[in-house]
Amino acid sequence: MPLLKTLKGQVLLISVAFLALGLATLTAANYFSSRSQAYESLAAQSQALARSHAEALRDWVRAKAGIIEASAAAVGDADPVPPLRMLQKGGSYLTTYFGYADKRTAFSEPQNLPPDYDPTSRPWYQQAARSESSVLTRPYADAGGAGLVVTFARAVRSGGSVQAVAAGDVSLAAVVANVASIKPTPSSYAFLVGGDGAIIAHPELKLALQPATAIAADLTAAMLQQLATRTELHAIELQGRPMLLSVVPVEGTDWLLAVATDRAEALRAIRTLLQVSLLAGGAVLVAALVLLAAILARRLRRLTLVRDAMHEIGEGDGDLSRRIDTHGEDELAQIAASFNNFAGKLSGVLAQIRDASQSVRVASEEIATGNHDLSSRTELTASSLEQTSASMQQLTETVQHNAEAARQANQLVAQATSVARHGGVVVGNVVSTMEQINAASHKIADIIQVIDGIAFQTNILALNAAVEAARAGEQGRGFAVVAGEVRSLAGRSAEAAREIRALIGTSVEQVDAGSRLVQDAGTTMSDIMDSVQRVNDIMAEITTSTSEQSTSIAEVGQAVSHLDQMTQQNAALVEQSAAAAQSLKDQSARLSDVVGTFRLSDAHAGAQRALLPAP
């Protein structure tokens, strides 16, 4: 709704809502309080009504029981029938009678009894015999068509034993009529039940002697006994109707009198009160709505003027020279004063913006000119850096080629060093082998010397053997031959040893000469290895220097390339700055146009101030 979008409508709605809430709360409190009082009053009335009728039933029972007690004096009469008839008529009994312990009977009216009728076996006789006072039997249907009947009985004792029982049958028609007359409201009624829960009296006669659960499943004998101890009303549904039940006991009996009040009829006055309260609240709400609408329309008129002034500033000709009358000291006058201050400050701010936009426009023109010159110089610098970068690239490639050649020479020197080192190892092995041969030759010479000594000794021994064989004569001739052979062998051995010694000596001299040559070769190889190692170290230093030079030149090339990129970026930024300066110039011109749409106060733009009418 458009009304709810306005401050007036929202204030009106909130006020009416709070008023409605207050009226609803007051109405609900009155309703619940009245209903509680109505329940208490209704409970007291129902209890009083039920107790008054229960007392009437009590008096009726006492009167009937008193008549039976009075008839007990005639039990011993020779002819008890006349007293019984008198009691029957005086007490409105259907029949009065005596039942004797010897099984005799006496009735006020002739009875059609069987010959073997035994009064002592009847329930009324046994019930009275068990009690010291008058008793009342449970209701039963009379066989003669008299409706519901109860029996009052009293035992007559003699010497502690029952002599006879005086009894009388009474119709419950008067009791039923009394109960049926109880009608607190047109749809309310009462009913009488016995201690066993059977219905004694009810407006619907067909329910007589049926259990009370026939009219409500909850009305058991225990429930009725419990309700008889309470004074408050019990809500229950009887035969499909919501009722309020009040139960009181009938003194002198086990009967319970229940008064069922129709709930809707009993609370009709409360519902009427609620309807009247709602109508009155609605009338008050409508009157308050009209009154609040009129008050708000008058009090918020100045706020409407503020809204119209803001609307003119926002969508009209932008007149900031307009002012609102600040007459009064309420919040609306304060809002008007605040609006006037706001308009004055906004006018000043817009004037400053207008002046600043002019300054920005001039500055942007100067920036654009400077950026254009800077862009030209930056382009020249970028061109020079591109040429320098190309030259550095060529120099980098040349140094890298030299570094590659130095690395290859270093690898060749390393290979030569490895070969020389291997030759040194071989020469060392040869020297070692020659020394071993020389040692072996000396050992062989020593062995030959030993062999020569053995041959000499063998020759001496053979000579001695020949001398001894000559002395032996003929017996030693064979031994002499052997000794001669041994001597011959010893001589040849000595000769061979001398030849071997000469050969060994020659070999030792040649081996010594070879060892000296090999040692000289080892010394030469060591010198070669030292020279090759020095060459290797020099080539390694050259390779390292060349690599470092290549790396440095590459870094210089990268720096020149990066510098070239930065110069290109600077050129682009200069162009962007020139474009931004042009855009800033355009925006300042547009800002000046926008500010020009507002009419400022005379303190800032010399315009006339218009005063709005007071509300």
Automatic annotation (TrEMBL):
Topology within the bilayer: Multi-pass membrane protein
Record-annotated Methyl-accepting transducer domain positions: 356-585
Residues annotated as domain HAMP: 297-351
SUPFAM superfamilies: Methyl-accepting chemotaxis protein (MCP) signaling domain, Sensory domain-like
The keyword Transmembrane helix belongs to this UniProt entry's keyword annotation: yes
Swiss-Prot/TrEMBL keywords: Cell membrane, Membrane, Transducer, Transmembrane, Transmembrane helix
Transmembrane segments: 273-297
InterPro entries listed in its UniProt record: Chemotax_Me-accpt_rcpt (IPR004090), dCache_1 (IPR033479), HAMP_dom (IPR003660), MCP_chemotaxis (IPR051310), MCPsignal_dom (IPR004089), Sensor-like_sf (IPR029151)
Family to which the UniProt record says this protein belongs: Belongs to the methyl-accepting chemotaxis (MCP) protein family.
Protein name: HAMP domain-containing protein
Organism: Paenacidovorax monticola
